[in-house]
Amino acid sequence: MVATQIVSMTGAALLAAGLVIAQGLQPDTQRKGKNLEKALPRDTTQSPASQPRLKTATPQAYTAEQIRAGELRFGAQCGFCHGRDAAGGEQGPDLTRSELVAQDVRGDKVGPLVRAGRVDAGMPSFKLSDSDLTAIVAYIHRQMDEASTLGGGRRSVEPEDLATGNAADGRAYFDGAGGCSRCHSATGDLAGIAGRYQGLTLFQRMLYPSGRPAPAPPKAIFTLASGQTIVAPVTAEDEFSVTVMDPLGSPQTYQRNAVKVKIENPMAAHFEQLGKYTDASMHNILAYLDTLK
Fold it and tell me: Which of 5, 43, 61, 118 lies in the 20 to 30 Å Cα band around 273?
């Protein structure tokens, strides 16, 4: 029965074109000098998070009803990108630290931007009534005023906050103790990586590749008694069983003691490296990656 089920997976050979961010590093001799100089450690006391928060320059009064309405409208229209509390989200910046919001007076600056959008930055235009726009402005100003009492704390992480490493040391670690260059190349899969990802996004993908483009998923290689090998994508595994996806898109679970199976996971090296990094080595590698523009 098990053998029959496994054979049915022949057509389920893994189709994955992963661009794993940790795409490796080899020295790029043509630009290393200039770019490594740019990655010198900076004074971390100048982190944006240590600076005083902005607040509304011109005092403005809004009714409680306007603010409540604005909270609902903002959450529905703007919350996905800017966060439901306007303090930054998936793509949009923290509006409680926005200079434009600080200088806005009852929507004179926020309003035109919301209605026109900013296509180059991924922000669409919104067709809002005057009352809806005023409510959103009221909510944003309320959020900025409340955030200004919190001191220097901030949810988002700016690229400068992470720029504490040494690129030359990062390259040495990548080619040496880190072993990353065994799989990756600065002039191959990592070429231009810093032009596609910056700051926290680059750091996250370096440590734990995910997102888009997604890394290749693990695959199970089954060896039958006949010597035939069958490959299928893994959806789950533990020390007793392996679950794979069959050609029809249904999960199938096999006990490890009933079949001969080997798991190949492109992420395995990243998982192992997580336990070996020091704070310095992580930031040094990030500094090196940031030179690969």
Answer: 43
Flag the least confident range among 3-7, 177-181, 235-239: 3-7
Q: How far apart are CA 228 and CA 222, in angstroms?
A: 8
CATH 3.60.15.10 fits 49-150, yes or no: no
Other Cβ atoms less than 10 A from the Cβ of 20: the count is 22
DSSP state letter for 161: H
- The letter for the amino acid at 263 is I
Rounded Cα gap, residues 279 and 284, in angstroms = 9
| CATH classification (class only), 2-16+216-267 | mainly beta
**Cα distance between residue 217 and residue 90, in whole Å:** 24
- The amino acid at residue 188 is G
46-75 in b/e form (b: 16+ CB < 10 A) is: ebebeeebbbbeeeeebeeebbebbbebbb
The predicted structure's pLDDT at residue 213: 65
> What average pLDDT does the chain have?
79
What residues contact residue 98 under an 8 Å CB cut-off, 6+ apart? 54, 144
Residue at 108: amino acid letter: D
Cβ atoms of residues 88 and 146 within 8 Å: no
Report the candidate in 138, 90, 132 with the shortest Cα–Cα distance to residue 115: 132
